[in-house]
Amino acid sequence: MGRPPRITRLQLLECARDVFAAKGFEATTLADIARELGVTPAAVLRHVPSKQALFNEAMRPTMALPQCILDLRSTDAGSDPRVVLRRVAEGWVPFAQTTIAQNIAVQLHARSRSTFTLPFDAGAEDSPPRRGLRIITDYFRRASKAGVIRVDDPRAAALLFMSSLVGYVFIHQIVRAVPRPYPLPDYIDALLDLWTGGAITGGTRARTKRVVRTARGADRR
Q1: In the predicted model, is pLDDT for residue 210 greater than 70?
Q2: Is pTM beyond 0.85 here?
Q3: Residue range 9-58, CATH number
């Protein structure tokens, strides 16, 4: 009777997902994953027959909303939005970076670099990004009614805020536009400062809206 495994299947899959995402399929060995778990490669093979089988199972395209987004549903609308939005940013950016790294590993292994397969059905009404955006939009709507945020269009505000976080991940994880990662806390500070005080000092908000409406009217003509 063999020695029972010292790791659970869930522990193995979570660890394998992280190692494959960091090193890629070719550079990763079962010994690497076993070392991270503090077990022998034989213990890994009690759960899966091969590295390929482990990769297929661990890197299966899946995506769920991070807890920082789900928590917004029960967040007090009157809470300080700086605290609320910081918590969202601090939780969402690492989640997005990990998700992207995992899917890059899958794409490179499949040698399919011309397209990027998303870990969800982008056209589905209940896809994680669409559900997440609805939750964030609802938070901005509730916070606006509570008087702690001044926005005319909660959906646009949600898109603007989340796009700023997506941009951080894209610049660092995809195009690698900076030689060293800009510190996330400093980025969040700058983002919240921009939302709190605004950056444009010239002109008026009303004038800007008039120009936009005039331009739209000209386009229709």
Answers
A1: no
A2: no
A3: 1.10.10.60
